């Protein structure tokens, strides 16, 4: 099995509202995949269907080779990790005791606690009571909880939303190390910088439909105007198309030491999303 997730024609209807229209998607094992979309686009619904919290109205959903009928089984639960809005901790217990409880629940060895606390850079907080932790530290404990049983695939719903830059860096580094060790990551976010930094591929979700699925780099190239933007030492702003016939102009500017700044037009994922859907990502 080389695919971690296989979704064909997935649809989810809530009463009169269709939250997910017709999503078809394959995610390979070992990938970091980002589902990007603004509020209400269907990210959480997708996540919940893939983790078994909700059933799709129609379509086929396979996760780690198992179809949706297996999503309630302990085998399925032992292979996936979840960090979402619903994830919680026991406030009155220490970080260590919280993780010890989850070790019991998942049948994971307690020696894994110190390994995972190191991964999220929280070794020094192991004896602290959870209620006394900052929001960012709590989020890192929640990530540790999602990873304590060494799942093959982790679902992360907005893992860094409203966190300060320091905590975001700790979480991103932990996710990168996790992925290097072979874990597949399914990330839902509306944070385009996060997606650009972490994801091998992203998909744009707009009104319950996928609009683009590709690597951030391929999307930025596809939607680039392929022009050089030059600011000269005299403050002149030039836009020069990246074409062989313009090589002489750039060469002349360089030879005469006229270039103050030069950069290619690299649209951000947020700008591309706006171009594709007509909507802001946030
Ligand atoms: N249980 C539910 N009952 C009715 N409608 C729902 C339910 N859950 C989600 N929806 C609707 O489905 C659509 C998609 O919601 P969803 O929560 O998946 O979006 P989202 O992209 O995760 O948004 P956010 O970033 O704000 O969490 C929304 O219009 C929402 O109102």
UniProtKB/TrEMBL annotation:
<dbReference type="InterPro" id="IPR050763">
    <property type="entry name" value="ABC_transporter_ATP-binding"/>
</dbReference>
<keyword id="KW-0067">ATP-binding</keyword>
<dbReference type="GO" id="GO:0005524">
    <property type="term" value="F:ATP binding"/>
</dbReference>
<dbReference type="InterPro" id="IPR017871">
    <property type="entry name" value="ABC_transporter-like_CS"/>
</dbReference>
<dbReference type="InterPro" id="IPR003439">
    <property type="entry name" value="ABC_transporter-like_ATP-bd"/>
</dbReference>
<protein>
    <submittedName>
        <fullName>ABC-2 type transport system ATP-binding protein</fullName>
    </submittedName>
</protein>
<feature type="domain" description="ABC transporter">
    <location>
        <begin position="5"/>
        <end position="232"/>
    </location>
</feature>
<dbReference type="Pfam" id="PF00005">
    <property type="entry name" value="ABC_tran"/>
</dbReference>
<dbReference type="InterPro" id="IPR027417">
    <property type="entry name" value="P-loop_NTPase"/>
</dbReference>
<dbReference type="InterPro" id="IPR003593">
    <property type="entry name" value="AAA+_ATPase"/>
</dbReference>
<keyword id="KW-0813">Transport</keyword>
<keyword id="KW-0547">Nucleotide-binding</keyword>
């Amino acid at each position: 099995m080389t695919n971690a997730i296989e979704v064909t024609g997935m649809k989810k209807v809530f009463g009169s509202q269709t939250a997910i229209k017709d999503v078809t998607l394959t995610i390979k094992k070992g990938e970091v995949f980002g589902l990007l979309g603004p509020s209400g686009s269907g990210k959480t619904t997708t996540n919940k269907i893939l983790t078994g919290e909700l059933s799709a109205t129609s379509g086929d959903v396979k996760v780690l080779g198992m179809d949706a009928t297996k999503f309630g089984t302990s085998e399925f639960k032992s292979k996936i990790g979840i960090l979402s809005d619903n994830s919680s901790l026991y406030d009155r217990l220490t970080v260590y005791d919280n993780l010890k409880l989850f070790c019991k629940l998942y049948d994971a060895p307690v020696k894994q606690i110190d390994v995972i606390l190191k991964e999220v850079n929280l070794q020094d907080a192991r004896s602290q009571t959870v209620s006394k932790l900052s929001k960012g530290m709590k989020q890192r404990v929640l990530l540790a909880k999602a990873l304590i049983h060494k799942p093959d695939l982790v679902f992360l719903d907005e893992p860094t939303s409203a966190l300060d830059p320091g905590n975001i860096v700790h979480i991103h580094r932990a996710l990168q190390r996790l992925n290097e060790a072979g874990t597949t990551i399914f990330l839902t976010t509306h944070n385009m910088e996060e997606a650009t930094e972490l994801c091998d591929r992203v998909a744009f979700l707009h009104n319950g439909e996928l609009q683009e699925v590709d690597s951030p780099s391929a999307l930025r190239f596809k939607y680039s105007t392929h022009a050089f933007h030059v600011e000269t030492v005299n403050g002149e702003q030039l836009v020069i198309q990246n074409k062989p016939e313009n090589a002489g102009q750039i060469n002349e500017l360089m030879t005469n030491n006229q270039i103050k700044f030069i950069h290619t037009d690299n649209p951000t994922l947020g700008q591309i999303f706006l171009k594709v859907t007509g909507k802001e990502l946030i």
